[in-house]
Amino acid sequence: MDIHKKVELEQAVGKTPSKPSCRICRLIRVYLLFAIPTLALFWLGVDFGVSDVDAQDLVVKVVLLVLFFSIVRRIYLDFFRGD
To answer: Hey, how many other C-beta atoms are within 10 angstroms of the C-beta on 38?
Structure first.
């Protein structure tokens, strides 16, 4: 579809194109999506019935693992991919 026709159709319908959210905003939303339920579970003291696994230790290890992979991914994208 021609870009001019698309703009004309959007103006005729009265729909304005929404701006996509920035990368930082999306990243913050994803972190909050996982952080708030995790903190709520700790605050409420929910027991999952697994006595051998320390829940806080597990969350710390998962967060560190995600941090490690995100740093490695960023290094790959910035230095080795070269786009």
So the answer is: 15
